[in-house]
Amino acid sequence: MSASLETPSGKGRTDENFPVGSFLIRPDLRTHVHAFYRFAREGDDVADNPDLAAADKVARLARMAEVVQGAPGDDAPAAVAMRVSLAETKVTPQHCLDLLRAFTTDATKARYVDWDDLIEYCRYSAMPVGRHVLDLHGESRATWTPNDALCAALQVLNHLQDCVKDHQALDRVYLPEPMLAANGSSIADLKQPRLTPGMRKTIDQLLDRTDGLIETAAGLPPAVMDWRLRAETATIVALARRLSGRLRRGDPVAGRVKLLGVDFAASLGVGLWRSFAGPRPRPVPAQ
Questions:
Q1: What averages of pLDDT result for each successive group of 10 residues across the chain (287 residues)?
Q2: What is the radius of gyration, based on Cα positions, of the chain?
Q3: Count of domains observed in the chain
Q4: For the whole prediction, is pTM greater than 0.90?
Q5: The domain that contains 150 carries what CATH number?
Q6: CA distances from 283 to 24, 27, 70, 89, 163 (A)
Q7: Is residue 262 one of the residues assigned to a domain?
Q8: Cα-flanking dihedrals φ and ψ of residue 147, to 5°?
Q9: Residue 8 lies in a domain
Q10: Is 15 inside a domain boundary?
Q11: CA-wise closest residue to 180 among 203, 158, 213, 159
Q12: Would residue 96 count as lying in a domain?
């Protein structure tokens, strides 16, 4: 293994669909949100590196888990920085470990059988991201239910955006194969120049379920005490709605469907309005 086990792809916070520790986040917490993103980015880059064997990916991710939990060594700098952040904020390392579990799954699993299988993956690949940010802000864990819905929705939307790229680069397909078959489609349709009717129907069915998650996620901003985080989560919910709509109208096989500048501007306006004009949240004891 090299001096550094990380394999940076060059992708950063500004390349994401949704804000990551934006100016809305409290300045004293922004650095910690960025540290968590860097940790997640480096783990994801290891899992998505087409030049690494699966066993090598698993070993590197396991090493990141050791370092973030306190093992000495400078071969995983993002994990070292994350460990420092956790020590300062007293947030549990479990969210980091859950992410690494998801990245390990990516290194060893390339197909999904149904919606529940996909959501179980999101349980580790997406939900810990929001949970970490909420814990960082000292929010009630009663916020976890709508958070989990939002994070899962964002993950599925990203899978739909990248369905062709994931298949071409990594032979990884998150679209459940039985669902494709039931609609008269197959993974081979991802090699077509545009959506086939069966692939369109499959994506729309996944969007139907994703829209249900977004509706549950709409309960997150009103439950968040920190007004800055409330604005950011409301912005992200609005962006998720817009991206779902664009995927319904667009063709993610013909080309990546993206959010536009107008989507970000309008969603930010919605987020700020809901943060200031909406009812003031009250602490809710965790269930």
A1: 69 63 88 96 95 96 96 92 97 98 97 98 98 97 97 97 96 97 98 98 98 97 94 95 98 96 92 74 51
A2: 19
A3: 2
A4: yes
A5: 1.10.600.10
A6: 21, 23, 33, 21, 40
A7: yes
A8: -60, -45
A9: no
A10: no
A11: 203
A12: yes
